[in-house]
Structures are given as structure tokens and as C-alpha cells.
Design brief:
By secondary structure, the protein is of the alpha/beta class. Helix content is 29%, strand content 19%. It has one domain: Rossmann fold, CATH 3.40.50. It has a seven-stranded mixed sheet, with helices on both faces. The protein starts with a helix and ends with a helix. The model has no long low-confidence stretch (mean pLDDT 89).
Length: 221
Amino acid sequence: MALKILEVPPDVEGDIIECGTWKGGSAANLSLICRITNRELRVYDSFQGLPEGDPRDRQASGYKKGDFCGTLEEVRQNIRQYGALECCEFIPGWFSDTLPQLSRPVLLAFLDVDLEASLDTCVKCIWPHLTSEGYIFTDECVGQDYTALFFSERWWRENFNQKPPGLIGAGTGLPLGEFYIGPYGEISDHRLQHASTGAYTRRDFSGFWDYYPKNEEHAVA
């Protein structure tokens, strides 16, 4: 994420956004990059933990209301100690209430929101405000059903009348402290570790499959 931000010329406008900060670890790192590049980091979080899960949300069964709660004061204190608090703006509340108010251009957004309903809301609200080559990063790309949103032709057609952008892997160990070296059958013995990596998409990317030779042959016949 830092590399992508540093690659962008300083005259290109755009904030950095984090959705889902927990205790502020990633935000502290991002704030340092914002200080170097003279950008603002806008941190969106309920500061009350996760919301009540939607029964239709396949991810919700793995969490309970209040999980991953970091209070606003905890987050501010951690960034004050390890990051650049002066570069940060905090927007408390549920994503469904706060993100529709977004009106400024976004250069890069980091989404660590766990729930399908939250991912749906975040992408719907942020995508229209991305700069022409703006990025969305997520740390949850090992959940293929979860990140299938970025390849769903139906979702992108219904929401933005466009082809899906896809998702590109961005390395391993993006979330602080999360990594795992197998065997996978023993992962339950390491409660603070799990398979994890990061991935990103960009507003001008395309992840659309359009090669169906058998269907075309049948159509001709």
C-alpha cells in the first residue's frame, strides 16, 4: 500500500481511507506514509466492534456483535504513539451511515471489514470516489467466496453497469501478526495465526472472462 501511494504524483488529489481499524495498527503505518506524501488518512470504524450479523451474510456466523472492538481513544493513543496523528481524521459510526456521506476523492482504500454486508457497503460507497487509477486493498483475499464480489458480473452490472475489476494478490502477511506456515491441519493450535494475505484492485482494472468457444460453436449451429 505504501508503494502504491508513493508512486502517485503529489499533484493527484485523493485521501487514504481505512475501513475497519480495530486497535489502529495499520492506521498508524498508513498515517506515516500520509505524512510523507502530505495526504490525509480518514479512518472509518464503529469503534464498537462488529455489528449484529445479517442472517444472509455467510461470514456473520463466525463472529459476534462487538468482536474486534477498539475504542476511539485506544486507536488515537496507538496512532499518537506509533504514527502521525496529525494526518488522521476519525469518522465513527456504522459504514452504512457514514460512508454514503463520502464526497472527497480517494486515492487508496484499505478494507478490513470481515462481513459480506460491510464489504458490499464499502465498495458501493467508495468506488465512485476513487481517482481514475485509485486502489482498493483488502487483507481477506484468502476467503474466495468473500472476495468473489470483485469478480461478480452480476454485482458490478447491477451496481455500476460495468464489468468486474478483479483482484490481484499483493504479498503475504499484510495484516499485522497474521501468518501461518502449515501443516494446515494444525492451524487450530495457533489461535493468533491463520492463512492470510493481501490483494488489491484498481478502478481501471478488468477481471471479466469472455472466452466461450463451445457456446459460440453451438450458437453458429
